[in-house]
Amino acid sequence: MKEDIIISADLHCHSTVSDGVLSPEDVARRAHANGVTLWALTDHDILDGVPAARAQAEALGMRFIAGVEISVTWAGHTVHIVGLNVDDTDIALVEGLRHIRSGRTERAQEMARRLDAMGVVDSYQGALSYVSNPALISRTHFARYLVDRGYCSKLQEVFSRYLGERCPAYVPMQWSSLEQAVTWIRQAGGRAVIAHPGRYDYTPTQFDALFHEFRELGGEGIEVVTGSHTPDQYREYAAVARRYDFLASCGSDFHSPGEARLDLGKLPPLPADLTPVWHDWN
Ligand code: AMP
Ligand code: MN
Ligand code: MN
Ligand code: MN
Prior knowledge:
- By secondary structure, the protein is of the alpha/beta class.
- It has two domains: 171 residues, TIM Barrel; 60 residues, DNA polymerase, domain 1.
- It is 38% helix and 15% strand.
- Strands 1-2-3-4-5-6-7 form a seven-stranded mixed β-sheet.
- β6, α10 and β7 form a beta-alpha-beta unit.
- α1 runs parallel beside α2.
- 45% of the residues are buried.
- The mean pLDDT is 97.
- The protein binds adenosine monophosphate and manganese (II) ion (3 copies).
- One manganese (II) ion binds next to loops.
- The site of one manganese (II) ion has 5 residues, from loops.
């Protein structure tokens, strides 16, 4: 991509096809209105929003990249791997994603039982009322229900008291393996990126192993600037990108106007010495 064109990239966000609250078309409109020139929709474990997102982006004259955020289990914790510039019709990727999201309904029912034991009533039906795609019920939908019913004041609080990894209503999942996710992405012509590394609960030794294994498998990028990182973490993961020779990515991780730490397109620039993940996309 030519150096003299100013690129405002936002390569991580969600629509109603997963746990966002705006349709793919409305996410495209908001990104464009906020000045985004290179945009990827990256719903959780599903590519169904891509055709509508692409059509709307093209209508607005905004460069579009097909993306997905894949749930992975690595060393007993969930890691999110973003796949960028994938062929959204690739059969192995589409079927692989269908397989990993297939346990979500059962997991949601178990979450609801545990929430019930903690005094949160009717949360399965409650969460469902926030779900727009029945194939993709997530903790975010439960969290919105708990906030709107007054059990918690903020989404963050739901995750620290009820649904986070160390909480009583947390139901562990076996998502895909790191190898599987990176392989699906690469075979669909895409580039694999570790999403929001600052959010994972790993020791420094585990992080080092994760980054090495990811690179060995053909993973290429890491998110440096994301709505999930503090400015200190921008610097920390810029250093990681340099140390492991990763391409750098950036994305708001936008889900909803009312929930955003960073709005679509409102990202500080990546450090100039890093190679952006889009450097060779023409
Ligand atoms: P799930 O894929 O069902 O495990 O849900 C994961 C989603 O929950 C993430 O993609 C976020 O949207 C949301 N989430 C996880 N942790 C937090 C948090 N601490 N605060 C707000 N949202 C969170
Ligand atoms: Mn989400
Ligand atoms: Mn994520
Ligand atoms: Mn995300």
